[in-house]
Amino acid sequence: MNKYLRPGKLIMLSLAVMLGVGAFAGMPLLRTWWTPQPVKDAPAENPRYGEKEAAILKELIAVYRRMDSIPVLETGGKIVATDPANPSDDLRTDFNYQRKNSLLYYQLGESEMVQLQDVNISTNKSVNRMFVTPPQTITTVAHLPVDSIIALWEDDSYAISTREVDQQVTVSFLCEQHASCKELKITYNRASRKMNGMYMRLTNLSDPFNKALDRVVDITFNRWEEGKVNDSYFMLSRYLKKDGNSWLPAGAYSQYKLISTL
Asked: Which pick of 10, 97, 102, 213 has the fewest CB atoms within 10 Å?
């Protein structure tokens, strides 16, 4: 199985992005992917952001908070992940994300995750497995006070810049000595405040100061529908059927092996 899909790491990162937490919680999440190593020549003190950088972050926070507040949303696109050190682990696939109030559906390649009212279901077609667990609570860092979010970015010592072309704004964060993510770019439409894409250049800890070996994840949104979802994704009967006091995989998943922690 592609390493980008192992324990759902990329799925959870991408889901975090679309839940409105990626730009702010993404850095701590990325640090859990690999065991951090000491960073050489780290600055003695982190730089403080001025009014320009604070204004950039405040607008970006507003974009994420708007996205996080949309009760019904369907979006999708493409994810390209490359690893120069291990090209066989490169990933190029489509994703589909849908939210209906507290219900969530996410598909990346052959993996799916749906969170329903009383159950969380994950499936993987490549291994014919279905994992059923109690529902999970997702807390968004975007709900922290704005000043607290800005302070989190200051602590990571990123240089911030922005550029705009025809209402398309790209905010860039750069720190070549960062232990997890050296570069992050987030693109959105200033008028509609819809996301267009996200780019991450991740530190390869086997050779952390070799830029040529940095891993890259590029997420592009090509579909965005507010107030619309495919309701069939949120029907329990799509995934499971009752068999006495037990549950069995249903429909297209009937041949899957069920692993449950309910």
From this structure: 102
Q: Is the alpha carbon torsion for 10, 14, 16, 22 positive or negative?
A: positive
Edge-first strand order for the sheet with 91-100 is 159-165, 168-174, 181-189, 195-202, 215-226, 72-82, 91-100, 103-108, 111-115, 120-124, 129-133, 257-260
Q: How far apart are CA 186 and CA 56, in angstroms?
A: 12
Digit-coded pLDDT (tens) for 22-50: 333 333 333 333 333 344 444 444 557 88
Strand-pair category, 181-189 with 195-202: antiparallel
Give just the sign of the alpha carbon dihedral 70, 109, 34, 179.
Answer: negative
Q: In this structure, what token pair is assigned to residue 119?
A: 């159950």
237 — phi, psi (to 5°)? -65, -15
Show Cβ contacts of residue 195 under 8 Å, excluding neighbours closer than 6 positions.
17, 18, 63, 67, 75, 186, 187, 188, 221, 224
Residues 6+ positions from 57 with CB-CB distance below 8 Å? 49, 146, 149, 150, 153, 160
Hey, what are 143's tokens? Answer: 């709900």
Sign of the Cα torsion 173, 178, 182, 186 reads negative
The model's pTM: 0.78
> Nearest CA to 178 among 5, 28, 17?
28
DSSP 8-state class, residue 18: H
Half-sphere exposure of 75 (CA within 13 A, CB side): 24
Helical spans, DSSP H, in 144-254: 146-155
